[in-house]
Every structure is written in C-alpha cells, then in structure tokens.
Amino acid sequence: MTSVSGFYIPPVSLFGEGAIEEAAKQIREQGYKNVLIVTDPGIAKIGLSDNVSKILQELGINVAVYDQTQPNPNERNVEDGLKVLKEHKSDVVVSIGGGSAHDNAKAIALIATNGGSINDYEGVNKSKINGLPLYAINTTAGTASEMTRFTIITNEVKKTKMAIIDNHVTPAVAINDPATMYGLPPGLTAATGFDALTHCIEAYVSSASSPITDACALKGIDLIEQSLEKAFLNGSDKKARTDMCYAEYLGGMAFNNASLGYVHALAHQLGGFYHLPHGVCNAVLLPHVQFFNKADPKTEKRLADVAVHLRAKELTADAAIEKLLEMGRALKIPRNLKELGVKEEDFEALAEHAMKDACHATNPILFEKKEVIAILQRAYNY
Q1: Nearest in space to 21 (alpha carbons), one of 47, 48, 46, 56
Q2: Which stretches make up the Fe-containing alcohol dehydrogenase-like C-terminal domain (predicted)?
Q3: What is the pLDDT of residues 206-249, one digit of tens each?
Q4: Is 12-180 a CATH 3.40.50.720 domain?
Q5: Cβ density class 278-311: b for 16+ within 10 Å, e for less
Q6: If one looks up domain 185-381 in CATH, what number appears?
Q7: Where in the chain is the domain with CATH 3.40.50.1970?
Q8: pLDDT in tens, 176-196
Q9: 148 has which bridge partners?
Q10: 20 to 30 Å CA-CA from 5: which of 185, 203, 210, 309?
C-alpha cells in the first residue's frame, strides 16, 4: 500500500495575447518540420486554423489540416485524422478549439506512436509510450482539455463515451490566448464556463483531492464567480475573458490530478446517447449530484466551503447548491434533463454505463444503481 500521489500538467503553458505566435516559434525552435493541425468545421469557417497555418508556414514549417472533428469526436474522427497525419509524415500535432478538437488530437497523437485502436486505451494509463508532441490552442474557457491527461471519444456502436485517462496524452504545450475567445457567443460561454466550474467542484469533493488540487479548485471557483457572468453579458470584456482562461486552467489542474465524479460520469453518457453539449449536461447535473453527495458528512462540509467561494447567501451545502441553480438561471442554462430531450426509459442504461465510467470512481459516495437513477430523476423533474 502506498500513499504516493502524482501531479500532472503540461511541461509548458502559455497565457495572454500573442501566445499563439510564441507557440509557433517554439515549434520551430524544437526542430519540427511537419505539423498536423486538428480542428473542427467551426474553427475552420472563422479562419482561425488558416491564421495558425499561415503563422507556421511563414516560419518554414509544412502544415496539413484535419478540420472535420465533430462536437463529440468518435472513432472515425480519430482514424481519419490519423490517415492525414501519416500521409503528411507529421512529427507534431497542433489542436485548435475546445474540448472536442483537443480530445481528437490527443487520440490521434497517441495512436500514432502506440498503434492499435483508440478503443484499446479506454481506462487509466493503458498506453506504453508518449504520443506525438501536442501543442493545444484553447478557444473556449471550459474543458481544460488543452492541459489534461483526459481524452473523451464516443463509441457510436455502444452509444457511450470512452474516458481515456493517460499520462501519455498530456499536451507538451498548453496555449491560452484570450483573443481567440472575445467573440464567443453567450450560450457557449455559459456552457463552457459551467464545465470549468464543475471541474473545480468535483475535484474539490473528490476522494482523491489533495491540498494542491484544493487550492487550484477554490481559486478557480473564485474567478468563475467573479468573471463568468461578466463574460456572458459582454463577450469582449478582456479582463473577464482572461480571468476565465486562468479559471478553467486551474480547474484543469485540479481535476487532472484529483479526477472527477458522477456529474461527469453521467454527462458522458448523455453526450453518447443524445449527442448533447457536454458543458450543458454538466451544468444541469451539477447541483443535483451534489444534493446526493452532501449525505456524506465530509462532503457536506466541503460544499459549505464551496458556498464561501461562490459567495452564497449562507455558508452551507444547501446554499451552495441553491447558488448553482441560481447561476444556471442567470446564464440561461436549460432547467432540467426534460428540456434537453432526455428520456426516462433510458435512465437504467444511462446509470449502468455511468457506473462503469472511470470518472465515477472518485465521487465522494460510490452510489448504487438505484441512487444514480434517483439523481437522473431529480435532474429530470426539477
């Protein structure tokens, strides 16, 4: 039995306007010749991937682009991106986007060096060697996928999301340039911001939390409480956007090392079943999972700590939960699972899959199936 724990983050992280140009210089300085850019159609449409390609090409670097990553990336996205990588003999990968682009890029980079199928790596640390170096350019302040050892890929046959938690997918460089986020629409700002808040809270109540992850989680909550609604109301608020970059990164530091809980375990299933936005699923589920988690005395106390950092009306677990519901209303989050089109007849299957998701293992209470169904029912009826 050992009490040793690790703390994992990228070797280098860049923050601030101009971070993309700095990352491109580092790619050249490291001697890489052939870049694969992995992104999605939305990023391609607004021209950001073209801008990054131009920056790299002006430095003498060859660029290939795979821009067909879908919102919940699947095995086909991984295979198609890997084909482009091999055709162009890419020696480094650059991802541009939110969680989906980074997750797909991580999977591509991992399979490029380890071989096989991404299905082979579901679970914790199943690979043998590092993936190709990944420079992850973040465009949303939420997922923290640009800096974590998590990648989530949809298995469309089983209608589930596979959680690959592997030190070898940790990006080499995480890039947060708030200039890429100034034009984000309010709905996406709210959903991704709630994703970051969920990371902070789930990591703080996690059974694997530590003083280091606690510090990251609580500071992240502070910044989100101060900045998310401002960024929602005014997408060009530079300070709010910059603070949300730091907040989501802090949340990533927290959950990358303390892991998560049943909010994510269930949100992954909702995404796999219904192709729903991950951040929205987290936002709807977060208060209801914590309602059940507060049955554990230690977690009830920790949620009271969360109430302090959320600046709730009272310093109790119940007040923290009510503040989360209040924030959801202010940010126009759907009220319940019913509004998202979730079906009650799917609850049993959703619960069964959630209990197999790697994220459930560090929830403060290891719920029985009937309790997981009860969480879904509460989130459906609210």
Answers
A1: 56
A2: 189-380
A3: 999 999 999 999 999 999 999 999 999 999 999 999 999 999 99
A4: no
A5: bbbbbbbbbbbbbbbbbebeebbebbbbbbebbe
A6: 1.20.1090.10
A7: 12-180
A8: 999 999 989 999 999 999 999
A9: none
A10: 309
